[in-house]
Amino acid sequence: MSAHNQRGVTLPEFLISLTLISTLSVNAYSLFSHVLQENRMASEVNMFMTALHLSRSEAVKHGRRIVLCPKRDHATCGNGTDWVNGWILFASDDRERDNGEQVLQSGNPLAFGISLTGSNHRKRIVYQQDGSSGGSNASFTFCDTRQLAAPRVICLSNSGRPRLTLTRCNGKPIDC
User: Fold this and answer.
1) Is the pTM above the cut of 0.85?
2) What is the Cα–Cα distance from 30 to 95, expressed in whole angstroms?
């Protein structure tokens, strides 16, 4: 075979191809990370919204007060507004979980990079027998500490109805 029939890739062509492939790979990874964290955020919000709906329906169904609180450990409520360790749901007349009171649901700790903070004045949500949540309105703010996913807020009215929003409950932007 003669030398003029052989064809190879020149160094400039190889470098351009390598640059293109690496740029596309970095962009694809960035997009994938964003989509993955958005899905994690949506999943955590949906699980907490489900816990709120379950709390309300259990209170009406059984005619008892149902408490939803941030989890300190497997069976004890925390006293803060940080819900990152999950939550526990139980029936109680005194807002505290006693040894004989069964845990109806226990939420897992949140996915890596996601935080959940309740409004400062509501450390527990207590659903009354009529489905109302008593006390004042509450909000629960979900934030992504890596800022890959958009923040979300669940607004809880006195009537006990939760709603999801991409702003604070008053319509202003979410501060994370």
Assistant:
1) no
2) 45
